[in-house]
Amino acid sequence: MGLIMIAVATSTVLLVAMLAESGERQTRRIQRDIGLNVIILPPGTDIDEYWMTGVATGSMQADVMDRLVDQDVANRLVPMLKQSIEINGHQAMLVGLEDEWYRRNRTMPDVFTTQVPLGSVVLGSAIARSLGAGQGDVVQVLGESMSVDRVLASTGTREDVAVHVTLADAQQLLDQASTLNEIQAIECHCAPGETDPLGRLRTALDPIIPGVTIIRREAAANARLQQRHQAERVLAVTSPLALLLCAGLVAALATMNMRERRVEIGLLHAVGRSGGFIGMLLLGRWIPIGLLGAVLGWVLAMACATFISPGLLPNGGQMAIPVSTFTFVLVLAPAGAISASAVPVAFALRRDPAEVLRSI
Amino acid sequence: MPMIQIQSVSRRFQRGNQVVDALIDCSMEVEQGECVVVRGPSGSGKTTLLMAVGGLLRPTSGSVIVEGRPIWEGSEASRAAYRSNTVGFVFQDPHLLPWLNARDNIAIAVQGRASMEEIDQCLEGLGLGDRAGHLPGELSTGERRRVALARAVVNKPAVLLADEPMSHLDQESAASVLQILSSWCIEGGTVVMVNHGEQLPPCKHRFVDLLGGRLHDQEMVEGRAEAT
Question: How close does chain B come to A284, measured CA to CA in Å?
C-alpha cells in the first residue's frame, strides 16, 4: 500500500513537472514565433520614414551595446545595421545582425536571430525567388560574391525581401564600421497590469542613449505577456493541488505507518533497543520502497503523459520528464517516505513502551 | 542490598476528565533469587507495577531502584540498556511480530551477547526446538507464550518480570511455564510475576497483594515442589 502511495505521489510530482516543462517549452516556442517586441532606434529617427522604408535614418555607435546590456527592461538585444539595396535589379533589405546579447553578458542559446555564417547570406523567400537563388548559389551583394547559406520560409512580412548577413559583413559592405541603426530586443518584467510599459522602457533606456527612439510592438508584446501569464496560471493551479495531494498521501502514509508499526516500535523499545537503532531499522526499510515507488511513479507518469499530451498540447507537443527532475524525484521519494515514517516513529519513541504496547 | 527497591511509587492515569490512580504510594523490596507473586483483582495495578519496575512505564512519583540504580532518573538510553541487560519482560500478550519466525522473534531482543546457537538452545530448553522456523500464526497459544518467555530470558537478565504468564494456557502448558520460572529463580534469578490464577510456582515464593493500587499483605509460602 505504501509503495502505491509513493508511486502515486511521485507520478503526480512528475506530471506537474512535465506540465511545467512542456508549458515552458511551448511558451518559448510561441514567443519565439511572436518574435522580438522592442525596437531601439537611433536618436532623432523619423518614425514615419522608418515605417515606410523599414530603415532608420540615423545611426549609433556599436559600443552602445556595452552599456545597454546591463539594463533590466529589455533583453536578448540584437544589434543590427539595415539598408535598402538593389540586387540584380531587385529591391531588397540588407540586414546585418549579430548574435543576441543576453543580459549581464550571460551566455544563452540564441532564440530569435537568424544565424548567418560570416561571408554568407541567408535570403528571404521572396528575394530568393526573384533572384532564382537557392542554397549553395553565389549572389552578388554590393559587388561582393557571397554564397547562399539557406533560404528562409515565407513569413508574409518584410523579412521575405531581407538579405541577412553578419553585422560585420554589413558594416564592411556599407562601409559603416562600428555602426548600428537598429537594436531589437525582448521586453522584460512583463508584470500583469502594467499601465505604461513604453514609458518604463523609455525611462530605463533614455539615460543610456539620450533621445533614443523606442518602439514597442504592442500586439507582439501583449501576446507574449498573455502567453506567459497563462502558462503561469496553469502552474499556479496545478502546483498547489499536486503539493496538496502529495502532502495528503504522505500524511496517510504516516498514519498507516503509525498503526502498522506501533507493535514493532513498542516491542523493540521494550526489549531495550535504542531509539536510534529502531529509527534506522524502520526508516531504512523505506529507502528501497521509496526508490521502487519513484520508478513506478515514473512509469505511471509517462503513461498518463502519453494519454493526456494530445489534449493538453494540441500542437504536437510532447510531455517529457527532464533528467534533473527525475533525479530529484529519485531522492525525494525515499526522503518523503522516510519523513512520513519518521513522524510516527519519533512520536512512538517519545512515549513509554508500555503506553505504545497498551494502545495496540 | 535488595535487588529491587520500590519506594513510594504512584502512577496516575488521566483519560479526559477521568483520573485513575493505578498505584498509590507503593513500597516493597525484592531480594536477589526471590520469587514474588503479585496478586490482586483486575484493575488493581499489577501490570502497572510490573511495567514501572521493567522501565516500561514512568511512575508519576516515587523511585524504582534495581541493582542499586534508580532506573527512572537516568537517560532514555540508560533505560534502554537496563531493559536490554538487566531485565526480561514477559508480556500478558506475547507481542510476537507475525512476520518473523520464532527464532527471529527472539533474536530481536539479542544485543550481541547471545548467538543463534544460544537462541536455539533456549528454544530447545523450552521444548520449542522443532518450532524455531515457524511463524507465530503457526504456533499454539502455549508455544507463543513460551517463545515470548524465551525472548525474555535469552539475554540471561538478573530480573525476570512476567505479567500473567499462564493466562489462556491449558494446565499442562501453564505448569511448564511455571516450572521454567521456578528453575530461573532457583538458579539465582529474581522473578516478579503477576498471577491471579490457581497455579503457583513450585519454588519458594512470596505473595504481594495489590488492592486499589495499594500494596497489602505480604505472605511467604514455601514451594510445594522443588524445581528441577
Answer: 16
